Amino acid sequence: MNQSNERKEWTGVSKDRIEEARAVDILDYLKRNEPHNLDEHGADAYKLKDHDSLKIYPSSGGGHAWTWYSRGISYKNALDFLEKVRGVEFKEAVKQLTPNFQEKGQPQFNNNQNEVTDPIPVKPIELASGSNAERVKEITAKLEDGIKNIFESDHYKTYLKTLSKFHNYSLGNTLLISMQKPDASYVAGFNAWKNDFKRVVKKGEKGIKIIAPAPQKVKEEVGKLDKDGKPVLDKDGKQEKEVKTTTVQRYTIATVFDVSQTDGEPLPKLGKSELVANVENYKDIFSAVEKSSPVPVGFEEISTGAKGYYHYSEKRIAINDGMSQLQSLKTLIHEVAHARVHDIDKNAPEDNRPDRRTREVEAESIAYTVCSRYGLDTSDYSFGYIANWSGDKQLEVLKSSLGVIRGEANAIIVEVDKHLGDISKEREQSAILGENQPSEQSTTEPNKPIQLPKFDWKTPDAERYLSENRAIDPEIIKHCIATGAIFQSEQYKNIVFVGREVAGDRDSPIKYASLKGTTPNPTTGKVFQQEAAGSKKDYPFVIPISPQYNDVSKPNNLSRQVNVSESAIDALSKATLDRQHETKGHLWNTVHRISLGGTSSKGLITYLEQNPHINRVVLNLDNDKAGMDAATKITEQLHTQYPNRFTVVNNPPSPDLKGRPTKDFNDTLVYQRNDRREARDKAAKKAGAKGADAPNSPNKGEPKMDIPEIPVPTR
Hints:
Oligomer: single chain
Distance between the termini: 57 Å
Strand order of the largest sheet: 1-2-3-4-5
Number of helices: 20
Strand content: 15-25%
């Protein structure tokens, strides 16, 4: 048994898919997925920035090969690279390299139950007529019967699922596809499969009949007009005639086949339809749908039991707070449909707007279609009422509602796809700059081990960013690096602020990590920031105190004060400011300093439990509503949970004397640094030595570098 077949037995990956993965050229893969990591190293040769000893070069047999010189191994394809260099499991590597692979005769997946089902055979519409016009008339009659039959619960859901996959098709053709092959996913004509997709229709497969435009050029005699559009008259005063060729829109019956009825080369990627709404991309989908809403969206507690509502007079959407992510998203889509379709004056005559039941049917149907498009679980949708609703409706009314549903579902899907594409492009740009995480949100999971990046023993990017961009004292930065509180990631050069199981002990396991980019995104100006997956806020970032002030065997020297900040940079900024104004009896490293990774008190409680001698808590939280609310809440919690133990002092940053916005202590620090530089430059210019250092040394704590003034960093 060869290696590919052996692999299939324990991975469930077919030989064909493995072979397709092995055919992916290493350089092609890297240019698509890691362009920022390639460094030219000769003619058509490259090395990796994160692996100096790994080289890529042209192969004598075509394509490219790679050698990892420090390991003494050489391979040719991207599959081996993912396995041996990136450590990706074989099965996942194959899937990553062949995302659009489709097995021959592969069964289709049911979107909602995640179970494999056999393809449903086509039930073709039989047409008895001979001429094209009669055949079109016959299939139109069958289509109208289909409209009446489709308003049964099971048939209706099947139709909406078909609509989610063929949302840009006409109402009639969507219905025809649903009637003949409910599980169809991608259709094309016989020759299109052969010529455009290099696939062939399987022998014996029956086609799906649809209505296709067949414009015809016809000649007709019309009245002649001059260049100004006025009739041209003959000698008798009658309008002259001329023969013109015009195009008349006619229709014909066309036959198409679903992809499951064909064999051949894998299909190209067809767009966003493979997106599944799990926790990782929920934020993206919600954001894309929200951007498609014509009115603002907000969360609130709804006491009526409703999941959400669209407020017609205030023009806003409310989602009930506290629901699951999936339910919140489905409710949002439903209310967006109302806002887009049913935003009509409530006092308008009833004849001018659909009744309430019709509005609910249309909104729920649009939501079901959009949810199906993006793989959201729709098992709880019920259309048992649909037969009753449709029973007393005229065919034209039913067709009108189906047209509204099709048109608006298509419009929302097109807009959401566009917004998701924009999000994806922004993320790709971020990846080039080292923003390697999927989004700027916490991926904390309670029972998941922390996932740390590989650390680099060198930290130049971290030191440069903190000192130059954030004005942090270089000595404080070095102190934190030396004591294992700050690291730099190897691959993306992010700063990593860590919290340990035993606070301040560099040999204790890391339980929390916050990653901060060192290069701003050129498009947004923002710097990447995210907590590592599996981080626990119970373990704060700590600027280790000088050991002599934390020796419990010498109680007279013990520091009994802890300064509390929201972020690590805030804590470093406050330490820098304190160092600039320290005196012999009050040094910056004689007090405990921690940051919470936000406004949660969890890290503070852990730190206080580990340091029972502390009796004074100074809150250096942000000067905004969230910071002030948190200060009040933490003060109340400490006084309630530990009666008479702590003195709690609220000490946010003071307002700037020049009226500049001051949210946190880093704002204060950067303002002061820039003001000193401005004053120094003015003094130097006045002395006739522009650009030279001022006579006196810079204040303690200021980086001794000739760096141009920078604005307060964008967060």
